[in-house]
TrEMBL record:
Active-site residues annotated for this sequence: S58 (nucleophile), D209 (proton acceptor)
Entry protein name: Patatin
Residue positions of motif GXSXG: 56-60
Main EC class the enzyme belongs to: hydrolase
Organism: Hibiscus sabdariffa
UniProt short sequence motif DGA/G, positions renumbered to this chain: 209-211
Length: 394
């Protein structure tokens, strides 16, 4: 794959999908990317040194925040190589197997519980302990962008560290934002918090999983730049206009099940509300599958079209595994066996030939070039390195 010379500044974007414990898949990809960058620029560099925008939804929001939030020395809280260790240590406690089994046993008996699968206490306590009182405006190395959904107002709320620096009421605690974007319907309780300004004004948030609005937050991340430009708050004022030729975008999925014709019009015409919510014994949730799967594919479709229309398809790299089955396809199976399998899936995904979405079928197809995801990622890393050196030189 040819690498265009770095002659002018590019907007660099990292986006990470939602997907619960399947965050181990992008965690594996990110560790590989950061290792490549360290080979190029030294052992102390971190992903936040290279991306103007890091965006994430749900579990992707938690990963993004850990990559961007500052420690006491002003450097990123964790290295990318630590992401998977975080999931391995805490995943089984966040997604308690006993809670999951108890919940679904009740559902099978048609005795529907009046509470989510998990109480969310461990996740909330862990997130608050990890991020303490850090707020969005404390993120200075990059612009952190986290989509959520306000269930009270029924509209998406996008938190941005750049926006928080000028709007006090938008300067939420990072822990609150992470808990809010991870509050997946059915799985975790919704999350309420408030922000206040110096005058005593209050803003309230009643949040559920950001995946309801943007399971794939790549488009939200890119659009946040346009919003910043309108407000003249962009950290790259040199870029006045932008299209795919002036962007480097890495979008990481958390995996999906293979394309399958599970439902049809005749079948769903007979469904009740309960049927839309749960299909047993497979534990399919058609309503959530339709919402998150449809929006994620549409985002990829839209962005791929943008880049290809200006002959800049190499500037957009989407890495997604679309053959998950069994426990690996679920978002909350945090057994040792499944977590190790998800890491293995991420490692094998790097060795697979690069794929792009087919505009007509909506399916991912291997590219004609004989390029693996790992090779494409290495090329992307070199371009990120060149871009950083260009900025440092100027």
């Amino acid at each position: 794959m040819a690498t265009p010379p770095a002659q002018e500044k590019m907007l660099t974007v990292l986006s990470i999908d939602g997907g619960g414990i399947r965050g181990l898949i992008p965690g594996t990809i990110l560790a590989s990317l950061e290792a490549m960058l360290q080979e190029l620029d030294g052992p102390d560099v971190r992903l936040a040194d290279y991306f103007d925008i890091i965006a994430g939804t749900s579990t992707g929001g938690l990963i993004s925040t850990m990559l961007a939030a500052p420690n006491d020395e002003g450097r990123p809280l964790i290295a990318a190589s630590d992401i998977n260790n975080f999931y391995l240590e805490h995943g089984p406690k966040i997604f308690s197997e006993s809670c999951r089994q108890k919940y679904w046993e009740s559902v099978k008996k048609l005795s529907f519980p009046k509470n989510p699968v998990y109480d969310g206490v461990y996740l909330r306590d862990l997130t608050k302990e990890l991020l303490q009182d850090k707020t969005l405006k404390d993120v200075t190395l990059t612009n952190l962008v986290i989509p959520t959904f306000d269930i009270k107002l029924l509209h998406a709320v996008v938190f941005s560290s750049n926006d928080a620096k000028s709007q006090v009421l938008n300067n939420a605690k990072l822990a609150d934002v992470c808990i809010g974007t991870s509050a997946a319907p059915i799985y975790f309780p919704a999350y309420y918090f408030e922000t206040k300004d110096d005058a005593g004004n209050t803003q309230t948030f009643d949040l559920i999983d950001g995946g309801v609005a943007a399971a794939n937050p790549t488009l939200v991340a890119i659009n946040s730049f346009y919003g910043e430009k309108l407000k003249q708050k962009s950290r790259i004022p040199e870029i006045e206009t932008i299209d795919g030729r002036k962007m480097l975008v890495l979008s990481l999925g958390t995996g999906s099940a293979p394309f399958a014709e599970k439902y049809n019009a005749d079948m769903i015409s007979k469904w009740s509300l309960v049927d839309w919510v749960i299909q047993l014994p497979q534990r399919y949730t058609p309503l959530m599958e339709s919402v998150t799967g449809g929006t994620s594919d549409m985002v990829d479709y839209s962005i791929a079209a943008r880049f290809q229309s200006v002959l800049a398809k190499e500037n957009y790299l989407r890495i997604q595994e679309n053959t998950l089955t069994g426990d690996a396809a679920q978002s909350d199976i945090a057994t040792d066996e499944n977590m190790k399998n998800l890491i293995d899936i991420g490692e094998k995904l790097l060795k697979k030939r690069m794929s792009r979405i087919n505009w007509e079928t909506g399916r991912y197809e291997e590219v004609e070039e004989d390029v693996t995801n790992e090779e494409a990622l290495a090329t992307f890393a070199k371009r990120l390195s060149d871009e950083r050196k260009l900025r440092l030189a100027s």
